[in-house]
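Recall the central idea of this unit: under ordinary conditions, the amino acid sequence of a chain determines the structure it adopts. In this exercise we apply that idea directly, starting from the sequence alone.
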Amino acid sequence: MANVCFQMKGTAFTAVVMDLYDYSAELFLAQLKQKINTAPQFFNASPLVLNLASFEGELKDEQLEKIVADCRDMGLQPIACRGAALELKYTVMGLGLASLPSAKTRSTDIQAEPAQSKSAKVEPVKQPVEKELGYRPSKVITKPVRSGQQIYAEGCDLIVMAAVSQGAEVLADGHVHVYGPLRGRALAGVKGDTNARVFCRQMEAELVSIAGYFILNEKLRELCWKEAAQVFLDGESIQVEAI
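Accordingly, the structure predicted from this sequence is:
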């Protein structure tokens, strides 16, 4: 039997997303430097997704090439473009970037069910737990999350009953609850739920993110440092409050 050389599987990971609205070479580079300088250790070698879905006007090939070059020069690692125009397809490929579609939103329209005859017999169907309840049960972690570990709760909340160490990462599509010191990274609403929140018993996080909006360690130290706290979104502004 031949040795297995590799295995492929899906995973979740943290990436910085840059929403590009407009472009001026000098202004872009100046603003990029200013942003990087706010948290150089965080941005250093961070994977970056360029989101072009909201770009106003037409982004030219040479402009995209300059944007990627500037990002790399500043220590970022561009890995993909989201929502790039078809005309930029070969430029994106030539830059060694993956091409991602624009984020899609699910319809919330409720479709009317066809009326059933009174004589029709309806047999009960056993549903999976998440369908029966209307949601997935929370993912519960009872052991400490060590440095280098990543825990992801897909489609539900994440509850950690112990500490999250520096260098560890906890993510959830819903809320994140940490009933211990939070010293690593916590990301709630990773698929865009702006109502998601992060709760912790002792705030010492490297980074906290809600639906892609994040706040870093340096700013957290000025707020509820080493206190029980919650983090949530108010519009597009991250709020941190003691609890």
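Residues 25-38 form the longest helix (14 residues).
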